[in-house]
Design a protein that fits this description.
The protein has a 5-stranded antiparallel β-sheet with strand order 6-7-5-10-11. It folds into 2 domains: 2-40, no CATH class; 69-196, no CATH class. It is α+β, with helices and mostly antiparallel strands. It has helices at residues 2-9, 32-40, 86-96, 104-107, 174-183; strands at residues 17-21, 24-27, 44-46, 49-51, 69-77, 98-102, 114-122, 130-133, 136-139, 141-143, 195-196. Helix content is 19%, strand content 24%. It is built from 5 helices and 11 strands; from the N terminus they run αββαβββαβαββββαβ.
Amino acid sequence: MHDKLMSLWKPTEALPLIDFGSDFFLIKFQREENMHKALHGGPWFILSHFLTVRGWEPKFKASSTQLTYSALWVRLPELPTEFYDLEIFGMIGSKLGRLLKIDTCTSSTTRGRYARIYIEVPLEKPLKTHLYIGNHRQTLLYKGLNILCTSCGGFGHPANNCPESITVTKDQNEENKQLQSTTSTNNIPLKNKEWKTVIFPKKNIHLPKQLPLGKE
């Protein structure tokens, strides 16, 4: 684990690692830039498994802790420049989860093709494909492929490891075999596509129609 993390993060210091059990580990940082990269540079994967990184919490107990939230980057392609407003980004973040950070180029309106925000999302809820800012329909792209399950819409596991997936036995009839072919998903390598749109159906999420506009 230690060597894999060093390869992922490439820190400029030695990082001690403590195994707490229950698949939890503690990393101690001395330099702010190394900790910032670990917390905000993801998503991170080790052998195709998604790695959740979060700050230390007092009275942490690995055996009784359950992961219910994780953080990821969300891209807002072709967001109109009049919506480059901190209050609007905050409202978007609140509809998806909790806003943690706005990309520096986004906050200064220098990234013309898309805006990018870093949010904390609940693992048990499906990710949204889009939302509305007034009457503008905004597509959402998520960084990382294997973290998005196209079977249940959940976050943190690929479709081939989905707990809600249907298992079909070999001795079932042709109708069941057809069902199997429609519910199974190939495991696509992460390197082939870094950003993707979730393709499962969702309800539209509407923000208030009257929103403050940022300066152009």
